[in-house]
Specification:
With 186 residues, this protein is mostly helical. The chain has a single domain (35-185), classed as Up-down Bundle (Four Helix Bundle (Hemerythrin (Met), subunit A)). It is 81% helix and 0% strand. The protein has helices spanning 4-15, 18-53, 58-66, 70-85, 101-138, 143-172, 176-185.
Amino acid sequence: MESSWQQFINVYFLQTGIGWAMLGGMAAVMLGATGSAVGIRIASEQAAGVLSEKPELFGKLLVLMALPGTQGFYSFICLVFIAFRIKLVSIGAGEPITVSPIIGLALAFVGIAVGFVEWKSAIAQGETSAAAVNLVAKQPDESGRAILLPALVETYALLALLAGILMTFLLTANLTFAQAAIQMAK
C-alpha cells in the first residue's frame, strides 16, 4: 500500500504535471517577490536619506521607491497564466486537468526562468531608482526624467513576463510540435 507521500508524488508529478507546473509558478512568485522586496529596500534606503533633509520631495520620490515592486506582480501574473492554462483554476466547472508530466516540467522551467529575470531586474531597478533618487535630490525639477532611468530596466521585466505568457500558451496548446515532444518523451 502506498503512503500518502508516495500517492502525492505519483498523482501530482508522475501521472500528471500539476505539481511541476505549480512548482514553476510558485518559483516565479517567490523569486519575483523577493527581488521586488530587495529592490524596494534599496530605493527606499536612498530615499529615506534624502527625505530626512528634504521631506517635501516625498511625492516625487514615491514612484521611484515603488517601481521595483512591479516585478512581484509580473511573477504573480505568470503563476495565474500557468494555473489557468493547466485548468487548475477554471471558469467552466468540471473541466479535468490534463497536463502531462513533460508539459508540467516544461512549465516549471518557464516559471523559474521568468522568476529569475524578475528577481534580477527588480534588484537592478532598485539600484537604478536609488541613482534616480540622487538626481531628484539635487534637481527636483528633473523628477519626470529621473523616472525614465528605472523604467528602462522595467522593459526587460515586461519582456520576461510576455515571453513566459507566450511559452505557457504554446506549451499548453494542441500544437503539432508539442505533440511530437510528448511522443518522443514516451
